Amino acid sequence: MRCAACVAAISKPATVHAVVGPSGCGKSTLLYILGLLDSPDAGSLTIDGSLIADLPDNELTRKRNELLGFIFQFHFLLEDFTAQENVMIPMRRLGRLTEEAMRERAAFLLEEVDLGDKLSPPEPASLGWRTTARRGGSRARKQSARHPRG
After folding, report:
1. Could you tell me which residues come within 8 angstroms of residue 109 by beta carbon, excluding any fewer than 6 positions away?
2. How far apart are CA 102 and CA 87, in angstroms?
3. Is residue 100 over pLDDT 90?
4. Is the Cα torsion angle 139, 113, 117, 103 positive or negative in sign?
């Protein structure tokens, strides 16, 4: 019952929360369920008033792509892509924006996380453009730019 109260409390839109607790208490399980990657053993999960339990995989994938954002500990960025191209990946999957609109949105989002300087191509000798040269903090900011709805 205590977990259900916690889940209800973190379900408000446009808020950021941390899930903390001792090892083995179910933090990862909770995040997998909230991320639509796993189903609860008991109870139910609703998003925007829709019961999630019986949705087919393709619908869960669509909801995950449209409604949720993940920032992974190890960032999962594509190393051969520019910052802007990495941010555009979820937008391409949704297929709602033109190429130009995606580029503009990605540029805006990179500016929002203080990475607007990565939009201009570097000098050939510079390694500052591609993911491989990115330090941890800026990699995390770049990944966070992927997640606002495109």
Report:
1. 87, 145, 146, 148
2. 9
3. yes
4. positive
Interval 58-82: pLDDT, tens: 888 888 888 887 666 556 778 788 8
Residue with tokens 């540029």: 107
Q: Check residue 135 and give its pLDDT.
A: 53
Determine contact, residues 138/132, Cβ cutoff 8 Å. Answer: no
Q: What is the amino acid identity at position 49?
A: G
Host H or E run for residue 9: helix 2-9
Read off the tokens for 135. Answer: 């330090």
Q: How far is it, in rounded angstroms, from Cα 94 to Cα 92?
A: 5
Angle ∠(94,96,100) on CA atoms, nearest 5: 115
Query: 116 — phi, psi (to 5°)?
Result: -60, -25
pTM: 0.53
Residue pointed to by tokens 């594509």? 78
